[in-house]
Amino acid sequence: MTTMSASDLPLPKIGRGKVRDIYAVGDDRVLLLTTDRISAFDVVMAETIPMKGAVLTQISAWWFNQLGGVVPHHMISADADAIIKEVPALQGHRASLAGRAMLCRRTTVFPIECVIRGYLSGSAWKEYAAQGTLAGEKLASGLLESEKLEPSIFSPATKAETGHDENITIAKMREILGEETTYTLESMTRAVYTQGEEIAREQGIIIADTKFEFGREADGRIILIDEVMTPDSSRFWAADVYKTGQPQPSFDKQPLRDYLDIERRAGRWNGEAPPPPLPASVIEATSKRYLEAYRRLTGAELVVS
Length: 305
Known about the structure:
By secondary structure, the protein is an alpha+beta fold. It has two domains: 1-106, Phosphorylase Kinase, domain 1 (2-Layer Sandwich), CATH 3.30.200.20; 109-241, 2-Layer Sandwich (D-amino Acid Aminotransferase, Chain A, domain 1). Helices cover 33% and strands 26% of the residues. Strands 8, 9, 12, 13, 14, 15, 16 and 17 form an eight-stranded antiparallel sheet that branches. A five-stranded antiparallel sheet has the order 1-2-3-7-6. Helix 1 runs parallel beside helix 8 (280-298) and helix 7 packs antiparallel against helix 8 (280-298). The chain is globular, with a radius of gyration of 19 Å. The N and C termini lie close together (9 Å).
């Protein structure tokens, strides 16, 4: 499977995110094509990561199949042949679709990342350690790094196609979306995370935190969209080595983050675009992490055919 940095399909392209290219399929469907682009610290790297797009798409498809009874979602199919049957214009483009494409229901997307934190880590830990707060709201004193939060904290953020997402308060989310929609999105976020965290733990994985996106269909129904509990949108930890009071090894882009941290501390990168070039060893290690996340979570090797 060759890597892909950008796609070119015979459909109207209506969006390009940090990782995904979005195509319109008529008025009521979209095709999400997940490339092998990778971002870290909200900066897209110049290099691609082999198999990353397929991992993200197929983990999301696996989760949508697991969560169908919890909340409605947008996936129609993530199978290349089924997609081509639904969208004949894609005949002849199977190689570009295999593993990395998902045909979905089209929605009006809410401009909010629905973040939920089950454990105190990452940017949340940094803010708490400095100020005792999360998104400016006071937390209990005496919490440790990586400590389990009871209950989990719903911590929304504004979405950014480029640049950095910004944590906001739930009160600010209510100003943007209204009280009823905010309540619905928080409730759906908690339901999906609770079920997902339980399923993942059975596979020996802790989902420390994750973020979801939601959209509203033409009939008003709110559904789960985009990716779900992938290494890009979540922090995965191995349950058998988890220990509070310290950082945890994770099944995600940590080799990339570690390399960029070294470059930043050495003064060779200022944290903004353009990023430094990635060594082959970092690319390979990151690809292996993504594939390992798929295997650990689903119990199977990822096969793209």
